[in-house]
Write a structure and sequence with these properties.
Elements (H helix, E strand, L loop, with lengths): L13 E6 L2 H9 L8 E4 L9 E4 L1 H5 L8 H7 L4 E4 L2 E2 L2 E2 L2 H14 L4 E6 L2 E5 L1 H10 L10 H4 L2 E2 L8 H10 L5 H24 L3 E6 L2 H8 L7 E3 L5 H6 L12 H10 L12 H8 L1 H11 L16 E6 L9 H26 L1 E2 L2 E10 L12 E4 L4 H20 L6 E11 L2 E2 L6 H4 L2 H12 L19 H21 L6 H15 L3 H7 L13 H6 L5 H7 L2 E2 L9 H6 L10 H6 L2 H16 L20
Parallel strand pairs: 2-4, 9-11, 10-11
Antiparallel strand pairs: 1-8, 1-10, 2-3, 5-6, 7-8, 12-16, 13-17, 14-15, 14-16, 15-18
Helix pairs in contact: 4-8, 5-8, 12-13, 14-15, 18-19
The structure holds thymidine-5'-triphosphate.
Length: 627
């Protein structure tokens, strides 16, 4: 039988802020004459007026929905203004929306830890700000409470009549519990931030304010546009009692269906009938506990301090007759996607001093014969090397490897219906570095190979970096390599997009000259460890003499799973692609089919995590655990 867990997090104040019909607002700011008119942003593919990707609230009132195409929207709303998403390289160019999102983030991040959750939504941890406000200027001490805050919807507060008066009373109740007082402070802070966003960017947004991320996210969508909703702990039980299970983000798929069909669970609240053991028995330890927690509104997820995207991605779909049939066609599109990706990671490096370490390719394909009709094109990853040509080269290899695996022993004709690439494992570069540390350990041999392998003229040390999952020391080395490249760049003033290449070229030059301080490090090392620098250092060391191409291909790994057919040492140093490391904003940019697939990985990956207990909300449920 479940037992009450300690209250670890009940006094947090978390806000989820979501922009209203975001792409429409960005377009309306560009063209103010569209303000107030029913407007929708449509995809670049103009078949039947293009698919709607954002719909203004004026248009929604006419029944226009995102699932429609432009032509259909015009039928239900003849005056609708359709704006095409900007196009570049034959695909949607989302840069304007990304920077608009960044403008908003820079305002919202001023009051507490801020996590950019997608192109248009953030989580804020306002606990400290709310605590300070409660100490210094509690709501009851304010002469006037922000008008916008008084328009808040407070769940569980009865009566629509005199709502503002009721809300005002709720804000200044002297007998309120500490948690509610904190939420009231949080709501005032959020109202102020939303006002700032409107003033500075002309964009409206909606927000949810609660004690955890899950509840804040549920609440932000409850009253839109330009409103905010507060979830006191006392309202959680009723909120979840009527919340259809499929509305919970992680329960939209098979798990939600199983809950409905196998257990008769239709609302999240229905889960309260089941004990934690029962849920664990049925769905496994982690998922069972997670379900038990969400039924009680418990979610221990932290707001991660991250205002920049976790990864960058771009993709393109090729539906119906546009499906790609030849490697040449795939390569041509990959080249364009790689150009965009290269530009974006370069910009990130220049502006934010961050380096991406993993390149991943996703595709959807089918075989013209129906052998294995359900087989998926495997996603593949490899170390990311900066420079357009290298990214293009590696992306093509990833595709070739994926295609071989996809086709297996059958040499069928194939069609590719979508392609996407992403750059992940983005790490900050440190401001200082120690060259001696860089030349210690594994990085040492890889540095040698980069600097002295005559066969590899264009290779960069980034590929020899052991960029692994959860390995801080290796990451440190990675960053030092880059910092080194940068410092050389400053001396030699090389071209902007070749920072890392500069390290190799410069090192080679120094070596050739036979002087220079770097050479001292080289001269005391075993130069027999020459390898293709395309492979991670550990890989090179264990496969000396093998064909470089083999190295590259074998170090590719599945998007979903850990490395398979490799030696023990490689297994230790292998590359992995962690679905949870994908930034949701990047997923939004991927083609729809790939979005679904990637979200599927994330869901299953997240489900596998045990959610911490301890919200004070627990107290409201502590008597209901007896089933
Ligand atoms: P959303 O936040 O889902 O929606 P929205 O901001 O348009 O509207 P709402 O007020 O209901 O939140 O998406 C943010 C932007 O992401 C949206 O304006 C357009 C883009 N987007 C797509 O390109 N494709 C999609 O399938 C979705 C859901 C969104």
């Amino acid at each position: 039988m479940p037992i009450p867990r300690p209250d670890l997090q009940g006094d947090r104040v978390i806000a989820h802020v979501d922009m209203d019909c975001f792409y429409v607002q960005v377009e309306q700011r560009k063209q103010p004459k569209l303000r107030g008119l029913p407007t929708a942003v449509v995809q670049y593919n103009d078949w039947k007026g293009g698919a709607l990707i954002a719909v203004s609230y004026e248009a929604r009132r006419f029944g226009v929905k995102r699932s429609m195409r432009g032509a259909e929207a015009e039928m239900v709303c003849p005056n609708i203004q359709l704006v095409q998403v900007p196009v570049s390289r034959g695909k949607a160019d989302l840069n304007a929306y990304r920077s608009a999102g960044s403008e908003v983030v820079s305002i919202l991040s001023t009051k507490g830890r801020c996590e950019r959750a997608s192109i248009d939504e953030v989580y804020l941890d306002l606990t400290d700000a709310a605590e300070s406000m409660l100490l210094e200027t509690p709501p009851e001490a304010l002469e006037d409470i922000d008008e916008e805050a008084l328009k808040s919807h407070v769940l569980g507060l009865s009566g629509d009549e005199n709502r503002e008066n009721n809300v005002q009373r709720w804000f200044i109740r002297s007998d309120a519990i500490h948690q509610d007082k904190l939420l009231a402070c949080g709501a005032i802070i959020v109202a102020h931030l939303r006002g700032e966003v409107l003033k500075e960017t002309e964009f409206t947004c909606s927000a949810g304010i609660a004690h955890n991320k899950m509840l804040a996210k549920l609440a932000s969508g409850m009253h839109k546009p330009a409103q905010q909703t507060i979830v006191p702990s006392s309202a959680v039980k009723d909120l979840l009692a009527s919340l259809p299970v499929k509305k919970m983000k992680q329960l939209g798929g098979k798990l939600g269906s199983s809950l409905q069909n196998d257990l008769g669970v239709n609302t999240v609240g229905d889960l309260l009938k089941f004990s934690e053991e029962k849920l664990q028995e049925r769905y496994g330890f982690n998922t069972g506990t997670w379900l038990w927690n969400i039924a009680r509104g418990i979610s221990g997820d932290e707001v991660k301090g991250r205002v920049l995207p976790k990864s960058h991605g771009c993709g393109k779909t090729f539906p119906g007759p546009r499906a790609l049939k030849t490697t040449a066609a795939v390569e041509s599109w990959l080249s364009q996607l790689c150009e965009e990706l290269s530009e974006r990671i370069q910009l990130d490096m220049d502006q934010n001093k961050r380096v991406a370490h993993t390149l991943t390719l996703h595709a959807r394909a089918f075989k013209t014969s129906d052998v294995e009709p359900h087989k998926k094109f495997p996603s593949k990853s490899c170390p990311l090397r900066y420079g357009i040509n290298k990214i293009q080269e590696d992306a093509k290899k990833l595709f070739d490897t994926g295609l071989r695996e996809f086709l297996g022993s059958h040499s069928n004709a194939w069609r590719v219906t979508s392609l996407a690439i992403s750059a992940g494992k983005i790490l900050d570069t440190p401001r200082t570095f120690s060259i001696s540390r860089f030349f210690q350990g594994k990085s040492f041999s890889s540095a040698i190979s980069d600097a002295s392998n005559d066969d590899i003229q264009d290779d960069a040390p980034s590929s020899s970096i052991g960029c692994k999952e959860n390995i801080v020391p290796e990451s440190d080395k990675d960053e030092e390599v880059f910092a080194h490249g940068k410092s050389i760049k400053e001396d030699d003033a090389p071209s902007k997009d070749r920072k890392i290449d500069v390290l190799c070229t410069h090192s080679r030059k120094q070596k050739d000259k036979g002087n220079g301080s770097i050479l001292k490090f080289f001269s005391c090392t075993n130069t027999s460890t020459k390898h293709a620098s395309n492979a991670p250092s550990s890989w090179s060391e264990s496969h000396e003499g093998q064909d470089q191409r083999d190295h590259q291909e074998e170090c590719l790994v599945d998007g979903h799973s850990r490395l398979g057919k490799i030696s023990n040492q490689q297994r230790d140093d292998s590359w992995n692609f962690n679905a949870e490391d994908i930034d949701p904003s990047v997923i939004d940019e991927l083609p729809q089919e790939i979005q679904r697939e990637v979200r599927g990985w994330i869901c299953s990956s997240k489900r596998a995590k045990t959610t911490k207990r301890g919200s004070s909300i627990f107290h409201y449920f502590s008597t209901d655990d007896n089933a």
